[in-house]
Design brief:
Elements (H helix, E strand, L loop, with lengths): L1 H23 L10 E11 L4 E2 L6 E4 L2 E11 L4 E7 L2 E10 L2 E11 L2 E6 L7 E21 L6 E3 L2 E15 L2 E9 L5 E4 L4 E5 L4 E10 L1
Antiparallel strand pairs: 1-4, 1-15, 2-14, 3-6, 4-5, 5-8, 6-7, 7-9, 8-9, 9-11, 10-13, 11-12, 12-15, 13-14
Length: 216
């Protein structure tokens, strides 16, 4: 009997300790005025499409990955604005043209995206969100190996919207792990040999990222 009482008391003590720990470890949650900085990795995965006049075929851009910085500011616990900063290099080509597969060299893309996000569960440790952003992609550093007679390629800058979903996981009051997915409407004009051929490349990439975030 005594052993049973001691065992029950021990279990109650453990339960009370666990409950106290859970109370102490309750998530801080998202608050108005929070400024969050994230560092992680991003993958840019073009869906590819479009058409090429004269020679036909489909413009293609390769997948790429790079480090990424992102910044968020919370106007309310539910409403935030987010900005991502990263740059990736892509090989570009035309597949299935009258000239076969044509290499167009490579280009760097700088796609800053400003997104307004809604967080329906700001007090939860696992906090999903949805958003809608505006993307401006700047292409630079054109060059690399090209298939003759191609000698000059330029990809024009583009602007498009970017639907967004993601989730934050609070691992400590000021530390978060983030997973994020954007689909960027990216449809730049491409000029080959100083406008001898112009085409629209429907790149429209999925932008997938994972990062560690610190909340100030």
């Amino acid at each position: 009997m005594r052993k049973s009482v001691l065992l029950a008391a021990g279990l109650l003590a453990l339960g009370a300790g666990a409950a106290t720990a859970q109370v102490q470890e309750a998530p801080r949650g998202k608050r108005a005025g929070d400024f969050v900085v994230g560092l992680g990795a991003v993958g840019v995965l073009p869906t590819n499409g479009g058409n090429v006049p004269v020679i036909g075929g489909t413009p293609q851009a390769s997948n790429s990955a790079s480090p990424q910085l992102d910044f968020s500011y919370f106007f309310t616990p539910n409403l935030a604005v987010n900005l991502i900063a990263a740059t990736t290099q892509h090989d570009i080509r035309v597949n299935g043209s009258a000239l076969g597969d044509v290499r167009l060299g490579r280009v760097w893309a700088l796609p800053p995206t400003l997104t307004v996000q809604y967080h329906p569960l700001p007090a939860s440790r696992i906090s999903p969100y949805v958003g809608l952003g505006l993307n401006a992609t700047f292409f630079y550093g054109h060059g690399g190996n090209m298939t003759p007679p191609v000698s000059r390629v330029r990809v024009e800058n583009s602007v498009g919207i970017a639907p967004n979903i993601g989730v934050d996981y609070e691992v400590a009051p000021n530390w978060l792990v983030n997973f994020d997915l954007k689909w960027i409407m990216m449809q730049p004009e491409v000029s080959v040999n100083s406008n001898f051929i112009r085409a629209q490349a429907d790149i429209n990439p999925f932008v997938v990222s994972a990062s560690v975030r610190y909340r100030f």
